[in-house]
């Protein structure tokens, strides 16, 4: 079967699909990853074909206001719609659609008469168990959570509407709103598999059977991969360090965050590794090392704790390694994942990004590293995650479609 995985966004939105694609390829399928150009090396390293899409979530500016954010998101989705239409061909047998690409990919499945599966990294269907991931962490009770979940979907429909209108015109399809297409998918009970762990978010008790949680999908890692020599040397030179990094978040704030990180580490008496990321963190010294991209699967098990922005991928990687987190959520679904870490006892109370100070970070680091309950909770989650099937569950779902 010729499978195209279509996703969009930052590294955390794309990297898990390299491991998922590798598992599908090992099961005998031809697999291509459609994403923005910068992810071509990651796809090729996993043995996947690569289909570049022109859209780039970084190209619409650093928006500060909600109206500007919605406008930028709508423009990005229009770019994504055109990109998917460019890369999906009639030779594609199956589309695997991420949270971001599904509301557009559904229209391609209609036009080309090919099946699709949802492969989401976040829970999006309304549930009474918790509030929508995009609204933060505060529960409004079961009826309130469900109502807010429906409202969040309607807001997403508005973001996608211009892109849907343009895409359907390009595909010579009759007009259909984003909301109506979403309802059609729900009514048809189209399968959606979710790549996060039930150790972090149990499968919602009120979800329909076509919505399943498989466990996390992990970025592909070459079996021969090793940590850089300077990282290995630093790790063996003293006690376990703490990693501090914000992934694709906080661009332009590297100087402020680096100063906070260094002061916090010194106050807490800890060695540290700063991961530069989009923020551009950097510092030096005998007790601090600055690194670029380093595989989480190799580095995290060697750490005492990790300070991060609570993106879904980094959150899962910290738990998989069985180490405590200090979550500093910045935007989007990050407050949700940060709250889940705290709820299971694997992290202290999250520090909102705009409230981050050296003192607060030092206090949270001291708590996370010195109080053993946080490590025990993270290790319990790691043991649970090791029992989940993750990518293998998606392979089986694809196999069922072949029958």
Question: How would you characterize this protein structure?
Answer:
The chain is α/β, with parallel strands linked by helices and 403 residues long. The protein folds into 2 domains: 2-216 and 388-402, Glycogen Phosphorylase B (Rossmann fold, 3-Layer(aba) Sandwich); 229-385, Rossmann fold. It is 45% helix and 12% strand. The protein contains 14 helices and 12 strands. The strands form 2 sheets. Strands 3-2-1-4-5-6-7 form a 7-stranded parallel β-sheet, sandwiched between helices. The model is unreliable at 57-66 (pLDDT under 50).
Give a summary of the structure in a few sentences.
This protein has 403 residues and is α/β, with parallel strands linked by helices. The protein has 14 helices and twelve strands.
Number of domains: 2
Question: From the 3D coordinates, which CATH architecture of the largest domain would you assign?
Answer: 3-Layer(aba) Sandwich
| Coarse structural class | alpha/beta
Low-confidence spans: pLDDT under 50, at least 5 residues? 57-66
Distance between the termini: 12 Å
Q: What is the class of the largest domain in the CATH system? A: Alpha Beta
Helix content percent band? 40-55%
What name is given to the CATH topology of the largest domain? Rossmann fold
Q: Overall pLDDT, averaged?
A: 91
Oligomeric status: single chain
Strand order of the largest sheet: 3-2-1-4-5-6-7
Major sheet summary line: 7 strands, parallel
Outline: globular
Backbone CA Rg: 21 Å
In N-to-C order, the SSE pattern is EHEHEHEHEHHEEHEHEEHEHEHHHH
């Amino acid at each position: 079967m010729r499978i195209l995985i279509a996703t969009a966004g930052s590294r955390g939105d794309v990297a898990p699909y390299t491991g998922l694609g590798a598992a599908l390829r090992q099961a005998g399928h031809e697999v291509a990853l459609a994403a923005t150009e910068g992810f071509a090396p990651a796809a090729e390293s996993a043995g996947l074909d690569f289909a570049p899409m022109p859209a780039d979530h970084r190209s619409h500016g650093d928006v500060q206001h909600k109206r500007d954010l919605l406008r930028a998101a709508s423009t990005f989705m229009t770019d994504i719609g055109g990109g998917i239409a460019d890369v999906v061909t009639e030779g594609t047998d199956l589309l695997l659609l991420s949270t971001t690409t599904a509301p557009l990919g559904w229209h391609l499945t209609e036009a080309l008469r090919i099946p699709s599966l949802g492969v989401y990294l976040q829970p999006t269907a309304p549930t009474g168990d918790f509030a929508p991931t995009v609204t933060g962490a505060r529960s409004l009770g079961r009826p309130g959570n469900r109502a807010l979940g429906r409202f969040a979907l309607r807001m997403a429909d508005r973001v996608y509407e211009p892109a849907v209108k343009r895409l359907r015109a390009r595909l010579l399809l009759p007009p259909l709103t984003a909301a109506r297409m979403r309802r059609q998918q729900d009514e048809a009970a189209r399968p959606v598999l979710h790549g996060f762990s039930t150790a972090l978010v149990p499968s919602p008790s009120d979800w329909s059977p076509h919505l399943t949680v498989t466990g996390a999908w992990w970025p592909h890692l070459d079996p021969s991969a090793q940590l850089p020599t300077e990282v290995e040397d630093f790790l063996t030179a003293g006690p376990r360090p703490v990693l501090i990094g914000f992934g694709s978040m906080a661009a332009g704030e590297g100087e402020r965050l680096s100063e906070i990180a260094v002061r916090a580490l010194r106050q807490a008496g800890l060695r540290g590794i700063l991961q530069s990321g989009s923020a551009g963190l950097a510092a030096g010294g005998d007790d601090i090392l600055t690194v670029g991209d380093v595989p989480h699967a190799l580095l995290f098990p060697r750490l005492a704790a990790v300070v991060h922005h609570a993106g879904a991928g980094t959150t899962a990687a910290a738990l998989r390694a069985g180490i405590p987190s200090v979550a500093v959520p910045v935007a989007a679904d990050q407050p949700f994942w940060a709250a889940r870490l705290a709820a299971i006892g694997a992290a202290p109370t999250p520090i909102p990004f705009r409230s981050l100070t050296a003192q607060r970070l030092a206090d949270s680091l001291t708590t996370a590293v010195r109080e053993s309950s946080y490590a025990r909770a993270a290790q319990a989650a790691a043991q649970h995650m090791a029992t989940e099937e993750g990518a293998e569950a998606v392979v089986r779902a694809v196999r069922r479609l072949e029958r």
